[in-house]
Amino acid sequence: MFLLFTRGGFNLTHIIYNTNVGSNKPNTLINKDFKCPFCNRDGLKKEGRILRETNEFLIVENKFPVLENSYPAVVVEHNSCNEHIGTYSVEYLERLLSFCLDYYEDLQKTGSYKSIAFFKNHGIFSGGSIQHPHMQIIGFHNNNYEVNNDDFSGVTILSNQLIDWNFSNKPKSEFFEINLTLKNKDYLNEFCTYLQKSVQFILQVLNTKHQCYNLAFQIEEDCIRVKIISRGPTSILLLGFGIHQTPNNLEELAAQLRVF
What we know:
Distance between the termini: 26 Å
CATH architecture of the largest domain: 2-Layer Sandwich
CATH topology of the largest domain: HIT family, subunit A
Number of strands: 12
């Protein structure tokens, strides 16, 4: 979902995944008998893993740090397993993103990390394992990621002084990717409105079969960008040959989402 490289490290595009840690991760998407770890706030307190807390949100240390040389944290978005970005009010989503951005910026100020990745997995084909709504913020000690301007270009849905919103015509994955850029961080409410519409459009129109998506945020000094990526089984064309399939109806979809 994001490109990693290491200076004088392992490989330009790889990071070590600890399989011993990964094998112990619970999966409430597959095994419904697992108790949700994020519904039990008292249990998280007893474990001493809560980093920040409000009545609505939590940031906790990830109990299963599978990526080496990193500091992973989980943002628990809601008290209920049954809510998600598509069901929140825009005002709630704005408070959530403000909470995340405050933590992201404080992590950045420590100077301890080459880069910080802020992302969300939703659904079984997204790389997610826990149904409870959450996002992740990972500080990488040795790795960095590259984002090109072309990654956020595409077929325009809306473009004005505050917002650039489009369907990617050069997806980093394949098929449907929606790009959203906020050019002034003071207008986070506008950003949240179009972010939620994008998620709802994926779940209700583009991907009713799998109901999966990723969010990949790029936080810059003066703007916020996010890729909203519809997810399903990944094709052999991408995995085996690096060929990215791009839909031929992006103009039609852009017009549809514009009035969604």
